[in-house]
User: Fold this.
Amino acid sequence: MYSRVTLLEIDTMRVGVGEATELFTSEVLPELRTHDGFQGAVVLANPDGKGMIITVWDTEEAAAKAASFGTAVLERYVALFKSPPGREYYQVAYAEMPGVTVG
Assistant:
């Protein structure tokens, strides 16, 4: 398994953390689910607007193939961020989250 990690900071003067999370779950997540190899996502945020989106993929190739979609999404929502988000890729070395659903 592979993950794509997006580090971001929401401009909380323009949009609240809850509203930004709702945009992700209602507009971005359904599109992510259409990509081959998508396994799930975790969104982490604090009240100051700092956050991280972790998407998990079957293979490194699936994560890389979906990268162009991710770039287009970031461009679509650029006004929500204080600065351009950063992105990194990792191999998932260990994961355990049975039955976890929050939100």
Q: What stands out?
A: DSSP finds three helices and four strands in the chain. The chain has a mean pLDDT of 89. The longest strand covers residues 2-9. Strands lie at 2-9, 38-45, 50-57, 86-91.
